[in-house]
Amino acid sequence: MDFFDYKNNQLHAEDITVKELAAQYGTPCYIYSRKTFERHYLAFAQAATNHKNLVCYAVKANSNIAVLNVLARLGSGFDIVSKGELARVITAGGDASKVVFSGVAKTADEIAFALKLGIKCFNVESVSELDRISHVANELNLVAPISIRVNPDIDAKTHPYISTGLKENKFGIDILTATSVYQYAASLPGLKITGVDCHIGSQLTEIKPFLEALDKVLALIDDLKANGIELSHLDIGGGLGVPYNGEAPPHPSEYVAHITDRLTDYQHLELIFEPGRAIAANAGILVTKVEFIKQNQDKFFAIVDAGMNDMLRPALYQAWQNIVPVTPRNDDTPTYNFDIVGPVCETGDFLGKDRLLALQQGDLLAQRSAGAYGFTMSSNYNSRPRVAEIMVDGEQSHLIRARETVESLWQGEKILP
Ligand SMILES: Cc1ncc(COP(=O)(O)O)c(C=O)c1O
Ligand SMILES: N[C@@H](CCCC[NH3+])C(=O)O
């Protein structure tokens, strides 16, 4: 069941037409479906029936407080990468004891904040970070639960900018040196070794790289055990892809089954997942209005009111996301091959290229699969206020983040005396 679908020639978000939502809230706007978030979260949470596990939703994918709250109410844990994300989780009613803290550059202030809140684990990405966490924990007279994020040097076969498990990527600690790093961690005061972590990249559409990485991590776990270091959890990261353009990634239940199948000899290890995109992407759309139609010789442009500052993925990763009319035309409007471009002064400012559509000025378009890494990567470039976010819940809609005002853009700036 898709909660963004056509009924009577109108694109719906759950039980409301997107046209009505656009009229009420204006464009551009992000529209999310609560039911879709819940269904996607449960697809992970209910998958591993025979293995103790925890789903830690990756907050970076979509960090709106209402989204985090919907997931927290279902019992979700959270994967965070900054003090800001952790503060959001707490504000949204999330449970600190189900939070794992990833990221290569945690500051002393961020570590102290997380330690005082009692998070589940720090996923440590360097030896210097171990020293820093140990130091902060000692100063606070607290014990920091840690796992080492290992870099297994596995090709995730994804866009190079979102591959994280190769030795040339900045993430994690070389798995070949991991045992000695664990031994070093065991020698430091204020640390409690609890797990191991591995996240090799995002938008993976095949199971194979996940399993190759898992095999290397399991070999490390065996080696650690032989050296007297026992772990209590295994964090396999996130990264499961979504079908943006005909890709066929495994369903979360299939993905989880492949992993748990390998863990029959490791029943004592709690399994942690950190999915972001697979939960959020198809729970959201970006709605935009055609401001102008323009033709340069044989090239057609639909200039829309959403730009790369609102949705960066096409510009940054040459990402393809489907763009559909909110109310498909059934009149005699001709169909052309349009580039759907935004208002920003950059040639890379496009939502999609070469889209066969019948369009007129004023028409509404929806970019699909926009619930992950859409609003969270938006910016104020060109002094454009960030757009509204709306959550649909059955027949009801809620403004969960108001559109920014132009005046809010220079808050904190000061003219010299
Ligand atoms: C450490 C970590 N965990 C989880 C995720 C979530 O990834 P995805 O949205 O692909 O599931 C990311 C992003 O790639 C990440 O860096
Ligand atoms: N921002 C990326 C995903 C990055 C994942 C974070 N490690 C995207 O939009 O596809």
Automatic annotation (TrEMBL):
Enzyme superclass (EC): lyase
Domain Orn/DAP/Arg decarboxylase 2 N-terminal as annotated: residue spans: 36-281
Reactions that this protein is recorded to catalyse: meso-2,6-diaminopimelate + H(+) = L-lysine + CO2
GO molecular function (one): diaminopimelate decarboxylase activity
Pathway info: Amino-acid biosynthesis; L-lysine biosynthesis via DAP pathway; L-lysine from DL-2,6-diaminopimelate: step 1/1
Record InterPro entries: Ala_racemase/Decarboxylase_C, DAP_deCOOHase_LysA, De-COase2_C, De-COase2_N, De-COase2_pyr-phos_BS, Orn/DAP/Arg_de-COase, PLP-binding_barrel
Family: Belongs to the Orn/Lys/Arg decarboxylase class-II family. LysA subfamily.
Matches recorded under NCBIfam families: lysA (TIGR01048)
Protein name: Diaminopimelate decarboxylase
Species in which this protein is naturally found: Pseudoalteromonas arctica
Source species taxonomy: Bacteria, Pseudomonadati, Pseudomonadota, Gammaproteobacteria, Alteromonadales
Gene giving rise to this polypeptide: lysA
